[in-house]
Amino acid sequence: MTRSIDPIATSNVVRAAYLRYLRSLFPVREAALAAALDAAITSDDALTKGPLLEITPPYAPGATLEQLVEEGVLSGGLRDVSGDAMPFDRPLYRHQEQAVRKLTAGRNVVVATGTGSGKTESFLIPILDELSRQQAAGTLGPGVRALLLYPMNALANDQVKRLRGVLAGAPHMTFGRYTGDTPQDSRRALEAFQVDNPGQERLVNELLSRDEMRATPPHILLTNYAMLEYLLLRPLDVDLFEGEHSGTWRFVVVDEAHVYDGARGAELAMLLRRLVDRVGADKKLQCIATSATVGGESRPADVTSFAADLFDAPFEFADDDPARQDLVRATRVAEPEGAPWGPLQPEQYTQFQGRSTDLLEEAKRQGCLETEPGRALSLEHRVRALKELLSDGPLPLSEAAARVFPSHEDAVHLTSALVNLGASTRDGMGAPAVSARYHLFARATEGAFACLSDAGPHVSLSRRERCAECAAAAFEFGGCKRCGTVYLAGRIDRVGAHSVFRARRSLAERPTWLALTQAVGHGDEDDEVLDEQLSTDVDEALLCARCGALYTEPRSRCDNSGCTSDQLRVAQRTRGAKSELRQCVTCGGRGTGIVRLFESGSDAAVAVLTTALYQELPPAVTGDMAARPGQGRKLLLFSDSRQSAAFFAPYLEDSYAAVQRRRLVLQGLTAGDRAGEGLRSDDLVFHVTKAADAVNVFERRETRQTKERQAALWLHQELLSLDERLSLEGLGVLTTDVGDRFGLDVRKTSEWSGAV
Description:
Layout: H1 7-23, H2 31-43, E1 48-55, E2 61-64, H3 65-71, E3 91-93, H4 94-104, E4 109-112, H5 119-137, E5 146-150, H6 153-166, E6 175-177, H7 186-196, E7 206-207, H8 210-215, E8 220-224, H9 225-233, E9 251-254, H10 262-279, E10 286-291, H11 300-311, E11 327-329, H12 348-351, H13 356-365, H14 373-378, H15 381-389, E12 395-396, H16 397-404, H17 411-424, E13 436-442, E14 448-451, E15 459-460, E16 474-480, E17 486-495, E18 498-503, E19 512-516, E20 537-544, E21 549-551, E22 568-575, E23 595-597, H18 603-616, H19 642-672, E24 679-680, H20 681-694, H21 704-719, E25 734-738, E26 744-748
Parallel strand pairs: 4-10, 4-11, 5-8, 5-9, 6-7, 6-8, 9-10
Antiparallel strand pairs: 1-12, 1-13, 2-3, 14-15, 14-16, 16-17, 16-23, 17-18, 17-19, 18-21, 19-22, 20-21, 20-22, 24-26, 25-26
């Protein structure tokens, strides 16, 4: 698998995909306004920002597991779980060591360190140590010892995969994931495991089904807080807490504790109190919370107070006593001291990647006395300059590059090469010379606002009532998704004897709609009004482009408060329409959302960004993962709203599947229609199936007939699509004709670039 992605290329791809999506929100029939909107999308840097470069000094190393065993902090039985997933001779981070020491001493702990800092090991090592001690004492029978509580199933699933690696050599330590996805019986659970983990053998100590966990409760139980509510209520699950295997509970871990605020925090706090009443009323439970964003740098006592309220357990932070500080924070590695050397030649930042010996020789030639590649590179002139530059926080990559490589035309790529070299060059403790992260931000849109004056139109993507360029009234506008008629959304205020149409103050304000039936700018086509009976009544009016005054009688000039503009636009005002129009007054098109404003929305925009980023992730090229859908790519999304996350997951799956299938139809058509004469639909199904098989879309056990039935469904869903703007036929990429044998002939009508 490729080790990394190109941050510059990936940022460009993601940004281009987002801007392309924004351009597709709705068609704009008036050419001048369409051009102004496109220019605003392209030039508005506020829509996307980045990539930004952040320096993240590596975490300070601590003791190894072996050293902690020799010291007596951990038991020797922990060696049973040692392996590649948890090597005994590798130093822990210092904050991991601190958490292990506090937890083995019986204290409750909050681990508040950054993403990727090994928070899981901070609590998992003490839990496994306790299981090892009980195994040595002969008391490790069935029964829950540790509950790991996650806010969403994706995190619990990821943790199960990690436990498989850690506990592969410790069959006496059992674990199980009990969520809404956990099958009831062992047979179905094993089938689901084999589908999700092809080629992997089930561990004897992993309990896969609800029946197995009820009969012999696992030592480590993973679930989410919603499922914990059910477990505490259902009689079928009572044996997890009471009965033959009760009295064994020792640890309760709440991961991502920062998401439990407000009502959700109160709900979880009450749930944990009920849990303690069931399993720990006469026995102290150790409570552990983890979070990357809970804070605590400035007011650590607030964090421990929050944890104490959440768990109803003692947490404290004494400024003058490290032994009474139950908040564990990260410690970063200090920069090595010494005289700077260099700088390297620009091309050497690429040449020395993977060649530490050559790097050391060059450093030595330039007077550096360090003998470790990582420490030597940390003293290089430009590396040190970059770290100092970013010591106060992230900067745009282009800005940082211009200051580190002044007067270099390719400064951005040179800076990226410097970061790559620093990340791959490590010191004797395994810390990289440059630990950095790239950030790319995308902002949701709140509407498009345009003046309609002869000097314009000028489009802004920020809410305003006046055009910043010509001072004319600015109106929020959208378009009919079917015909492109421009609609204005706003409010009507009474100013003296006049009615004035203005932009809404916020998205929450119910809009009044105006349909522009006179072209904006020059060179536009005449409007065509379909001869249909419209369900929405309309009144024709004149709109002053300068001040927004509305007139119902014919006139040639505005007379509102001294305005004498002759820039009057013909508009149709809807009567009795709700906040969302369901029918276009021009073309008669019907449907929810037929008129759309320039709002990116929360789900569609995130789906576009996610899809673009996912496709840039490097795939596995060998091994079992290369044969799986996605070729081993993984992408984890977070949401502060459980409801939003639950809705977005199937939305992303459905939208991505639709794009993927549309692409497969095109690939099949391209492969089969070599002569440009078209294909019968049943022949096209064969080629679509072949294209899907090549990228492992189907399950391995599916037969050829089953695959072709699925491909036929995709094809006919595409050919019968009701969404004219997104279907391949609506885009003019292919066309269909009824054949002479009651079949469909399909042929390409334009060159295809390979992207959908």
